[in-house]
Automatic annotation (TrEMBL), chain A:
Signal peptide: none annotated. It comes from the Bacteria. The gene is sdaAA. This is L-serine dehydratase. Its cofactor is [4Fe-4S] cluster. It comes from Planococcus maritimus.
From TrEMBL, chain B:
Residues 148-220 form the ACT domain. InterPro entries: ACT-like_dom_sf, ACT_dom, ASB_dom_sf, Fe-S_L-Ser, Fe-S_L-Ser_bsu, Ser_deHydtase_bsu. GO terms for biological process: gluconeogenesis. It comes from the Bacteria. GO terms for molecular function: 4 iron, 4 sulfur cluster binding; L-serine ammonia-lyase activity; metal ion binding. This is L-serine deaminase. It comes from Planococcus maritimus. Pfam families: ACT (PF01842), SDH_beta (PF03315). NCBIfam families: sda_beta (TIGR00719). Its cofactor is [4Fe-4S] cluster.
Length: 299, 220
């Protein structure tokens, strides 16, 4: 299969050589591979963007999962921001609350757009709709944000993994956060190389993160990990825009993530057998939700 | 490259909570339904690895049944798939297995009705993307790099030529092809990887050819 890029180095080189945005390279590759028109491809991404907007809106109104483990935190965060005393700043908290909103909707079996997965679906839209208020992008620029995220995600999915069962949470929320960070750079007017630096900085800080969902549900700790993924993405984007670079090149960070995932015991890869899932409270919650003979100390 | 489209990464639009365990599971169910060609009256679903450990929490079971009822990943009816299956009189059973498999998210779906039955193995490789690894005991070796057509047919002379001629007529180039059969004159399977997208018209024409039992598209 002929592709325009196989790794981040090729992606950045092509964008810089041709004087194009990373999102543009992704759109061109999609046209090449699928034989679809630009208009068709842009329309599909526009629809995905609409799904993301609706999920955030729904989450900000307050939703609760069937298990009762998650829900309502996005509302708490928005109310707290409105009081005007936030320490970490409104943009960051807005991104966090909107990431949480999306994942609360996901946990409640609502409709979301996987980016790159459902468990990590909050980070890309969360950051997008928060940064939007600062940068005032056009609808097309917002759609391009998703193509830029997709270009980096494409590399990770093909060269490493975006599955928690295969590579832990680093492969899901780690990838999502790094993708978002790279997309923020393009929307903020940074260079393709800076997108690559932001991606590398973000992913480096999420390496080793295990997938240990309580009761096997995509709720605890997934919702809060999306919150932190979003904040990681915004901060790393600021670092890259400030001129900070990653000592380890982007593609090598992706390889490292893959290797770490391969070495991870299966207890930490979405089996709900280790980490937070195996804590006394985690087990107690599991028995409370599904019944069974698990005895824990719980609250 | 297993992930070809940007919409494999930014997508699918789906009912939560898990792309691999819910959306991928629904897709595995739906491919099985598609291959079977009609609504099965019973289903036995064997789950392996992470699927076996966490299927309840991820609604993997509900999603697979939804797929068997021909629902897409974003179909709201996935949530009530068990009730819908009962209405349609489809019985189902989930069997968590402890055996080792190559991929952590593996399901073996055995479905049937009073006419016939079918067995299919599917894996969910992340982000809602799936691969079919076995059909009725035939291992499928798909590269996943190209659209593929599966043709279940009777082992009779001329079948392969007819299928190849039909693809030629629509200017579809075959990149890789494998043919296997259980026994001489028994059921056989063609796995064809092609370079072009295969549309509904081509699929319908293939279905109309003599001695062809079932035709489906995967991995495009």
């Amino acid at each position: 299969m002929d592709v325009l890029f196989r790794n981040v180095r090729e992606l950045v080189e092509r964008a810089e050589k041709e004087g194009k945005l990373i999102s543009e390279i992704m759109i061109e590759q999609e046209m090449l591979i699928t034989d679809r028109s630009r208009e068709d491809i842009m329309q599909q991404m526009d629809r995905n963007l609409t799904v993301m907007e609706e999920a955030v809106e729904k989450g900000l109104q307050g939703v609760h999962s069937v298990s009762g483990l998650t829900g309502g935190d996005a509302v708490l965060l928005q109310k707290y921001m409105q009081q005007g005393n936030s320490l970490s700043g409104d943009l960051l908290l807005d991104a966090v609350s909107k990431a949480v909103a999306t994942n609360e909707v996901n946990a409640a079996m609502g409709t979301i757009c996987a980016t790159p997965t459902a468990g990590s679906a909050g980070v890309v839209p969360g950051t997008l709709f928060a940064v939007k208020n600062k940068l005032n992008p056009t609808r097309e620029q917002m759609i391009r944000y998703l193509f830029t995220s997709g270009a980096f995600g494409f590399v990770v999915a093909n060269n490493a993994s975006i599955s928690g069962a295969a590579g832990g949470c680093q492969a899901e929320v780690g990838s999502a956060a790094a993708m978002a960070s790279a997309a923020i750079i393009e929307m903020a007017g940074g260079t393709p190389q800076q997108s690559s630096e932001a991606f590398a900085i973000t992913l480096k800080n999420m390496l080793g993160l295990v997938c240990d969902p309580v009761a096997g549900l995509v709720e605890v700790p997934c919702v809060k990990r999306n919150a932190m993924g979003a904040s990681n993405a915004v901060v790393a984007a600021d670092m890259a825009l400030a001129g900070v670079t990653s000592r380890i090149p982007c593609d090598e960070v992706i390889s490292a993530m893959f290797e770490i995932g391969q070495a991870m015991p299966s207890a930490f890869r979405e089996t709900a057998k280790g980490g937070l899932a195996a804590t006394p409270t985690g087990k107690w919650l599991e028995s409370k939700i599904f019944g069974g003979s698990v005895v824990g100390s719980g609250q | 490259m297993k992930f070809k489209s940007v919409f494999d990464i930014i997508g699918p639009v789906m009912i939560g909570p898990s792309s691999s365990h819910t959306a991928g599971a629904a897709r595995i169910g739906r491919v099985a339904r598609d291959l079977f060609g009609r609504q099965p009256s019973w289903a036995k679903i064997h789950l392996y690895g992470s699927f076996a450990e966490t299927y309840k929490g991820h609604s993997t079971d509900v999603a697979i049944i939804g797929g068997l009822l021909d629902y897409d990943t974003f179909d709201e009816r996935i949530k009530t798939a068990f009730e819908e299956a009962e209405k349609l009189g489809m019985s189902y059973e989930f069997i968590p297995e402890t055996g080792n498999v190559d991929h952590p998210n593996t399901a073996r779906i055995v479905i049937g009705d009073d006419k016939s039955e079918m067995s299919m193995m599917g894996i969910s490789i992340g982000g809602g993307k799936i691969e079919i690894t076995e059909l009725n005991g035939f291992p499928l070796r798909l590269s996943g790099n190209h659209p593929a057509i599966l043709v279940v047919h009777d082992d009779r002379s001329g079948c392969i030529a007819n299928v190849a001629n039909c693809l030629y007529k629509y200017d579809i180039n075959i990149g890789h092809m494998e043919v296997s059969r259980k026994e001489r004159g028994d059921m056989a399977l063609m796995v064809i990887e092609v370079d072009q997208t295969v549309n509904v018209e081509v699929m319908d024409e293939l279905r109309g050819l003599p001695n062809i039992t079932q035709v489906t598209r995967i991995a495009d």
